Structures are given as C-alpha cells and as structure tokens.
Amino acid sequence: MSSYWKDKTVFVTGATGLMGSWLVKSLLDEEADVVALVRDQAPNSMLVREGLLQRIALVSGDLETLPTLQRAIAEYQPHTVFHLAAQPLVQVAKLDPVGTLRANVQGTWNVLEACRLADNRSNVVVASSDKAYGANQNLPYMETFPLQGRYPYDVSKSCADLITQMYAATYGLKTAIARCGNLFGGGDLNFSRTIPGVIQATLAGNRFVVRSDGKFVRDFLYVKDAAASYLALGEGLAEDESIAGQAFNFSIGVRRTVLEIVSMVLRLMGRVDLEPVIENNASSEIREQYLDSTKARERLGWSPQYSMEDALKETIDWYRSELGF
Q1: Where in the sequence numbering do the catalytic residues fall?
Q2: Count of CA atoms in the C-beta half-sphere (13 A) of 106
Q3: SS3 track for 239-259
Q4: SS3 147
Q5: Which of 72, 83, 131, 258 has an alpha carbon within 20 to 30 A of 183's alpha carbon?
Q6: Using H for helix, E for strand and C for coil, what is the string for 43-88?
Q7: Is this prediction's pTM over 0.70?
Q8: Residues 319 and 196: beta-carbon distance below 8 Å
Q9: Phi first, then psi: what are they for 46, rounded to 5°?
Q10: CA distances from residue 8 to 4, 47, 112, 297 in whole angstroms, order as listed
C-alpha cells in the first residue's frame, strides 16, 4: 500500500533537532518531499550524520523573520507544516526568558501567520509539551485541563499552544497540537537532559549528577514513537475536520521518578555501582507530570510501540556506537 505521505510536500521547522531529525527520517521513509527551515549549521545533528540533509530542500533563516517564512510557504505550498523549532531546555529558559519567549512564542505566531496569509492553506501541526499544563494536583494531565505554565519554559509552551488554538478558532486555520512527554532517543546531544546525560557519564565511568532530589516524576516518550505520533496527527488533521484546533497527548504512559530512570539506565548498562550524585538544588521546575494518551489512541489509532526498557536499550546502543565507547 502507498504511504499517505508519498509525494506530499511537507515543511518542517526545527529539522536539525532531536524530534525534527527523526520526523524528517520518517517522512523520507514514507517518500514525502521534505522542505526544512534551518537557522544554523548543525554538524552533529542526526540529519547530517546520516546524510539526510542531502535529500531535502533547505530554507535558510530563523523563526523571528516573518518574510522568510512567508516566502517559503508561498513558494513550496506545503500540504502540512510541522512546527517543531523551539528553545527546548528548561534551564536555558530560566537563564534567558526573553530569548526563549521570542523563539517559542513569536516563532509560533510567525509560522501560523505565514500559513494564514498564503493562498494555499497548509495544515499545521505544532509541537507543544506536557509543560504547557503547568503544575496541577490532578494527574494525569488530560487535554481538557487548563494551560497554566508559571516558569519561563512552561509559559512559552502554554502561550504557543493557546496562540495555535486562536488561529484555528479565529481564522479557520487547520491546526493541531502535539503535547508530548519528555522525548529521548539516539541523536539527542543535549547532555544536560537526564537520559543522554546519565548514558554519557556512565560510558565515561563517571557518576551522574542529579540536579534535583531525584524524586521529580516525569513522563517519557521514545523519539521513534513520537515521530509516528506526529505523522498520525498530521494525517488525522488532513482527513478529519473535527480535529482542527485540538490538542493530543502522547506518552509511553508510565510515570517514573528521575532516580528510577537513572537506575534503569545503570542496570541496562551493567554499571549499578555508579550510584548518582544527588545535588538537590533544582528550582523553577514542576514537581510531578504525566499524561493520559487515551484521546490519541481512540481518535488517531496511535499507541506507543516501544516499552521504556526496549527504547532505552536502543538509545544506549546508539550512544555506544556514536560516542565510541
């Protein structure tokens, strides 16, 4: 059977990032025609490492420049836009809130505005996050919960999410929102994150440093499952008008503390002797988060294909291969 995405033009922002690289890889596997907005050269990106950059059209520019986006959307007339580009790190957002808001909020309205102004109205899938919900005593998060971010990164995702809904409600732009748990997988070179960080430290024979007390609860999603979730949401948005303006949660569906994740990685790597160092100095972060993905399962037919353990095994193998240990 022919892929739904075969020969469809797809525009991707954030293509050199973790999620973007895996999504582009999946789209190329599905024989889509991919166009990517690229701001900086990223020689360590999986997109470059695997030679995928040679197989796609590139638009040079950044999210803050609306004319660049307008030109790209008008010229390529994409069937679907996957807007993934963002400043993705919680600690960076705390240090540089204005830069984070500019990238995550202004960048989102620029993408949506470029699509609104184009003659050919593209479908737009926007990457939000479980952080958009903010802290909530009622868990797991459901799509009906209010968006109430309080810290810089969380606020940037709440705002981008609401702006996306605004464009759907006010201008009839066909948008959909993906709220994923913490993404992980091969290709993530942000070693300040827990999973790549503990793998890197363990491969080097070092004890991993946990910034918090280790009891923060997080929800995770393997990047291969995340790529499949975006494709499912993009297809659903194109084929079912009732999806427009809606948000969908995606996660493995297993809540774990940071220490549980670290312990699992150490066990799979055979280094349980490398007990982590607990600094307990994290601040401006939500204590407990996890998602309910029932809506995605029922409306999109999506479900994760990897267990946490199998996903971590593949991820560890990627780093062992790429980091040369």
Answers
A1: 153
A2: 12
A3: HCHHHCCEEEEECCCCCEEHH
A4: coil
A5: 72
A6: CCCHHHHCCHHHHCEEEECCCCCHHHHHHHHHHHCCCEEEECCCCC
A7: yes
A8: yes
A9: -60, -30
A10: 8, 20, 20, 25
